[in-house]
Every structure is written in C-alpha cells, then in structure tokens.
C-alpha cells in the first residue's frame, strides 16, 4: 500500500510518467512474517515476482534463498549475494544448455515434471538433486494455474525412479496451489499427494527428503486476506497430519506475498469520455495499461486498489482502460470500477498492491511507450 515513505518520494521527486515505487521496509517486514509463520521452512523467494537488484540484495542479506526460472535470474541472485547452494532452478521447462550453465554456476537443485526433463538434467548436470512437481487443482486461487507445469502423483513416482536410475538424487516433491491463494487449507491435499509419493518410493528403496510447497501466498488487493501466520498454522497442521513426527525438509516460494503490497504505481488520467449520450459508464483512460505492467488484469483476475485525491466525492462505476492502440488494453469492463465522478484529465491516481508482476510484465516499447520505470526506496 502507499506508505508515507512512498508518498513522500512521489511528492518530492515528482517522477514524470507512470512509475512503480517499492518500499523495502515492507519487503523486510514480509520476510520476517514468513520466517515467523513457518520457522522450519526455508524461504526461496520467487525472483520472477520482482527481480529488482535492491529487492534481491535485501533478501539475500536477510538469509533468503531464491527460486529462479532462468539462467538470467540465477545470475541476478548470485550478483545480489546469494550462494549457488541457496538457489533452486524451479522452472520445469529448461534448455539443456541452460541446465549445463546453471550447474557450472554451482546450482545443484532442479525442478522436473517428466522423464524427458530428467534425461536432460542427467546429461547436463550429472549427480544433481531433482524434485518432481505434481499437479494441483488450484481451487481458492484468484489466479489459478494451468496444467502447463506438473504431472499426476502416480507419474511423479516414475519420474523420480528414472532420476535415480540415471544417477541423479531423487530429492522430493513440489507443487503450487495457485497464485493469490486465499484458502489457508489449500495446501492439505497437495501435502497428502507428496506423502503418497514418499511412501511409494520408500517401498522401492528411495528415501525422499524434501517437500517444496511453492508459492501462492497472497497480498492484499481490494479484499482482506489471511495473515502469513494463518497459512503457517494450517500448513504445519497438514504436515503433521500426513507425515506425523517424521517431518520432511520443507521449502516455501513466496513471490507476490513478499513484494506485492510493497509497491505502488503512480499513473495519470489521460482521457475521460463516454461512447454515447446514453452510455451508463464513463471510460477512464490511464497512461498505463495491460502492456505497461498491468497484465494481471487479464480476465479481470486481479483488481487493484486505486486511490485518488478525489475519493471523498461521489463514486460512479466506469470502464478503466490503458493508453495503447490495442483493443485488448482494457483493464476493467465486465465489472466496472467505481471512481470519483469528478475525476478528470491530468489527475494522478495511485494503483496499490503493484509490487509484484508489473515491471517484468511491461512491454519493451509497444506503441513507443517506454518500459515501466521503477524506484526502490
């Protein structure tokens, strides 16, 4: 949300054009909240959420590990001060030469979800540790994940058997319960799946040690979400229920929950109009849209809090859109967004909860608009 530090920065610096401002104090508070909520789980920050060097350096100094989706992200984490042992190559879709490069940098923990990926890792990173990602249904998530990543638990057994056969260390299971997951019990079924795979492989002489419980921890947008403590309590209870006293090593991969509420985008109203004399809704166009960093408004899945200086005035639903010459660049139309009826051209708006998945989603130069500027304070 817009902390006083962010408001002071915008008031004194007056940056031109749309920009993101991230408050590192909030990131640090979130890290400590996760550590307190799940003290026995290693934190692997999902770099893709916000790879700003300042964010990575802070988290590295606090002792965070890093979940990386590419060699570039691995190099960013190393540059920020992490050691290779604190990095997981968490993408299940990797070029063989990228696996080889990661291994050369010292990374030894890789995600897989099929035998074909295991074969690549075995060739490019002999002896590496691998964990297999299993599918989850994503119920309760505002941004459910597709079937792009993961396999069914029964197949995970075959994948990890193949890993062991090819000289890799079959280490464990991973899953992701869906982004912006609001159900604290969503991890239970997936932990049960992990236990199923653990037992099946134990019968074949392979002892798994790791459950990577992924991300999904939410940030606050328009609705309140449970605190990290509530998730920690529910997850620990599920681990105890399924694994008893022999708890595995566990990992969590917060991304949005770590940085989402630390960032605010400052934007400007470019145009306010109607499509006809009888149009029920005004159209409000901002100088930022889907292609400027707000891609998560796709299907209106994420509804960001928007704050203006006129919020004491009467509100009226409006269609909110971006500035580009692309008809898809509409943020909220199916469910119009309430904004002050006095809102006019040139007014600034603050789009809160935008610390995650904004700068890296912004296009390079679509329609000639520059990438979203970011300031980390």
From TrEMBL:
* Swiss-Prot/TrEMBL keywords: Lyase, Pyridoxal phosphate
Record keyword Lyase present: yes
What is the reaction catalyzed?
L-ornithine + H(+) = putrescine + CO2
Enzyme Commission identifier(s): 4.1.1.17
Q: Which GO terms describe its cellular component?
A: cytoplasm
Query: Which residue positions are annotated as catalytic?
Result: 325 (proton donor)
Q: Which residues cross the membrane?
A: none
Q: Does the keyword Lyase apply?
A: yes
Q: Which cofactor does it need?
A: pyridoxal 5'-phosphate
Q: Which residues form the Orn/DAP/Arg decarboxylase 2 N-terminal domain?
A: 26-259
Query: Which InterPro entries does the record cross-reference, listed alphabetically?
Result: Ala_racemase/Decarboxylase_C, De-COase2_CS, De-COase2_N, De-COase2_pyr-phos_BS, Orn/DAP/Arg_de-COase, Orn_de-COase, PLP-binding_barrel
Pfam families of this UniProt entry? Orn_Arg_deC_N (PF02784)
- Pathway stated in the Swiss-Prot or TrEMBL entry: Amine and polyamine biosynthesis; putrescine biosynthesis via L-ornithine pathway; putrescine from L-ornithine: step 1/1
GO function terms (MF aspect)? ornithine decarboxylase activity
Q: Which GO terms describe its biological process?
A: putrescine biosynthetic process from arginine, via ornithine
**Would you say which domain of life the source belongs to?**
Bacteria
UniProt-listed PROSITE patterns: ODR_DC_2_1, ODR_DC_2_2
**Modified residue annotations for N6-(pyridoxal phosphate)lysine:** 48
User: What family does this chain come from, according to its entry?
Assistant: Belongs to the Orn/Lys/Arg decarboxylase class-II family.
- The protein depicted here goes by the name ornithine decarboxylase
Q: Give the source species.
A: Aurantimonas endophytica
